Target: Methanogenic corrinoid protein MtbC1
Amino acid sequence: MNSQIYTFTDHLLGGNQDKAWEMLLSEVGKGKSSLDIYQNLVTNSLIYIGKLWEENKIKVADEHLASATCDFLLTRYFFHKQQMRKTAPIQKKAMFFCLEEEQHFLGIKMVSLLFQEDGWETRFLGQNLPLEYVTNMARKWKPDLIGMSFTTLYAANQVSDYINSLEQLEHRPEVLLGGRLVSKSPFNQFATDATTVIEELAGLQKWLPLACGEGNHV
Model:
């Protein structure tokens, strides 16, 4: 892990929005894509923060402050990118959320922002969303794609129910499944060809252009 990750992590844990923002702008100035920034700077810093918490080197309040700071930065970054470059809408809709009892939402928020930056109309429903509310929203809004995320074993036990319900929706959306645990268990066994399992944000680099068609890249 390079020194940049440690520095960015320190800014998140300290709630130092301005210093962290300067680092994001520096990456933009180097020509880094949003996908690269989210994966190599933001996600790696969040993974490191999780490791510090597991080792009891930081407290719950520290982790919450870092998450809140990161959430603010992601929103600020997206609007900054929108001012720099407007993307033509591609007439597709995508909906993103975390499974019930799943509180870690920053990863799926980054996915939502990537799709939005690429021209999709998106709805980000946040964390801890029971299945009945997901299906109700999906039936009303009819998104072309539904993405969901989980990082806990409790949420993992519900994956098959979510996948089965979403794949059986009348308008037949594509389904994305991601999160920290998908690389550790064979979740593909619960899905048909309508569901794509993404092990990390970098996986979107191959998948997203296929969904967007020619000329729409992050």
Q: What stands out?
A: Confidence is low (pLDDT under 50) at residues 210-218. The first helix runs from residue 3 to 13.
